[in-house]
Every structure is written in structure tokens, then in C-alpha cells.
Amino acid sequence: MKLILTSSWLAAVLCSAWPAAAQPAEPHGIERSIVRESRRLALTSTASPQTGPAATDPRWVPVRMLPGGGEVEVWTRNAAPARRVFVSADNTSITVLNLIDPALPSSARRVLRNLAKAHPGTLLSTDQMHVEDGVTLDRAGVSMGSRLLTSRDHLIEQIARDDLRQLRFNGPGGSYWGRGLLVGLAAGALIAYAIGSSCGPGAAQSECSFYGLVFMPVGAGLGAAAGAGIGASVDRPSARVVYSAP
Length: 246
Prior knowledge:
Strand content: 15-25%
Low-confidence stretches: 1-27, 41-50
Number of helices: 9
Radius of gyration: 27 Å
Shape: elongated
Oligomer: single chain
Number of strands: 10
């Protein structure tokens, strides 16, 4: 009877806690800044008339607010969705990096991503050269030593706003610590009860069940801590729609 009551209590705890773990993660700081700035500019644009598509369409404002170096999914009208690295945006287009070329080693991808984040002008201007960690970016493209890895035209893509159907920003969406905590809680409690209630020859069943109940909270606490730690170490990616064409 005690085992049945304990199992029912554990099930009730899991059911009541699960919705909290299933709640969507809080928006990342970047997304919160984008939303706040979008609302502010949308309100001010009505007070001061401007020209250009970005001024009349507040949906384009979040695109201008995206951080350089962030990963985006680009959906155009005439091509399949593609993953790119965001560089910059103006009123009429966006500029992204194509880093999926298998000819690009990880060191070159890291250098180019850092440029998009900290020095986008170096990527936008064909007159500037950048050399870092053996990787050279110049007018021709990206090279290591005397070997050209990819051309500049293939690396840097400019997509007109009229051709853009949807733009998604791949940012952090939290972790799985909540689910890990619940799984660890349940597993630890059950394992501890099974160990504590193991009866030796001649032992009374009621005494064994008592020891199992004593060990359950200890196992639940250890399991919850371990599960939360493991879950927190696993990032949960989240793709948020930044722009959708009308």
C-alpha cells in the first residue's frame, strides 16, 4: 500500500511540474532588444514621415537590428531555404555570408564570422584586405597561403528585399534543465526506493518498505541535481521569424 501511495505521489508531482518545464524559454536579450526597438521605431515613424520601404513598413526594422555574425535562415522566392551568417542590412537588401562551402576550414569560418560580428565593413568593401591566422580576405576571395578557398562573389551574398520571402534568426532558446530535473527526480526516487526496500532473507516486508521510503528523498534530490546539470549543458536552439514578406 505504501508503494502505491508513493508512486501516486510521485506521479502527481511530475504532472504538476511538467507544464512549468514545458513553458517556452524566455526570449534572449537580443530578441527582447529587437522587439523593443521595433515598437519604438514603429511609433516614432508615424510622428515623423520618412521615405523608403523601411520607414513605411515596421516589419523591416527587426532586420536592421540583427547582430552581425548571427546565424540566419534565408527564404527567398526562387530558391530553397539556406543557412547563412548575417552581416548587415539597409533599406533595400541584406548581406550574408555563405559559409557552408566544404572547402572552407573551421579556422576560416571562425575568422569570417568574427569579421561579420566586429568589422562588417571589411566584408562589404572590396578595397580592404584582412589577414588573420593564415586566412586572407581580399578582392579575389578567401585564401590560405597561395590557395584560393572560395571567391568573394560566392562568399558574400546580397539579397534584395523584394526577393526575400522570410528571414529567421537562429538564437539560443534556453536549455533542457527543467526536463532534466524532472527525469532525474523520478529516476533517483525510484532507484533509491528499489535499493532501500531490497529485503534480505528473513526480513519483514514492512521494514524494507520503510527503508525504501527513507531513501527516496535522498535519491530524488541527487537525481534532480544530476538531471538539471545535464539538461542545462544542452542548448535548445530556437529559430525565430524576424521578417515575413507581405
